[in-house]
User: Fold this.
Amino acid sequence: WIPAGCQEESPHFLAANRNKKSITLNLKTSEAIDIFFRLVKEADVLLENFRPGVMKKLGIAYEVLRPMNPRLIYCSVSGFGQTGPSRDDAAYDLIIQGMGGAMSVTGEEGGKPLKPGLAQADVMGALGATIAILAALHGRSQAGEGCYIDLAMLDIQIMALGHQIVNYFLSGSIAKPMGTGHSMLTPYETFPTQTYSINIAAVTPGHWADLCHVLGLPQLIEDPRFKKIEIRNRNKKELLAILEQDLRKKPAEEWLRLLKGKGIPCGPINDIPMAARQPQVLHRDMILEVKNQKFGRIKIPGMPIRIYGMTGKDPVASPPLLGEHNEEILCGRLGYSKEDLKRLKERGVI
Assistant:
């Protein structure tokens, strides 16, 4: 998908494909399947996200590839998994968030269900696949063999419901949208100020007392309506009205300075430009500028994993153009000639 103003390039692709190489194969041709088989024989991991059954129709299911490379780790990511009554249903992030319960607990209190602005089902599904693949690689180092991984995005969403689904099984209580609040923690909210909104999470006894002092409301500390967190939860609306009235009296910048000075968890509500230019984000090299054949230079998200010795300034390859590495892989690794590549392209194989 290409939004207006992106010069015919997909931000989705650019955001997700740093440090990757790209080749093109038309897997509906026998010559492409032959190339695919040659690559599989020396591969560690195969990752695919077609609907269940597509890889089998193409002739490249796990049971076909395993004899070629018993050490291969083959990971299938789909909306609903390879088995079950919904296995053949189509799925996108929106569908999975709805079916997985995430939308039912997102939005303003009393409002309609909402999808979080981030593609959380897509991202969490990818992270789940990453964890599974890493576990499989470790297992292979012990057992000497690869394996097949069946990962369903819906499974990940059900897991992510966490305490909300356990609370339902224990008490019968069904979680509802609560805006930015929390059913068991108060104050744990977004509050408006003179300038922009901020988040405050003062849920420990110490943080609660410090918040009251910072706001000039020390009488609330021992107020029987708010003294303990479970009582504050029951009197949430009354308390939030009091806090909001005081927080509107000063700008966010001043409140954040005062709250952080007391160690109270807090932060601004940043839009995307504000998030990208935060000193902490820049310090951690989470916005990288890389070379790109089409744009010259582009900015992309950095790598959030920091293993000792790594830095965000380690070399990062730009997201590739589609088929950019056909020659490097097919000629350099598999021994095809440039004339072979020309013929393959003419025949619609690559």
Notes: Residues 120-143 form the longest helix (24 residues).
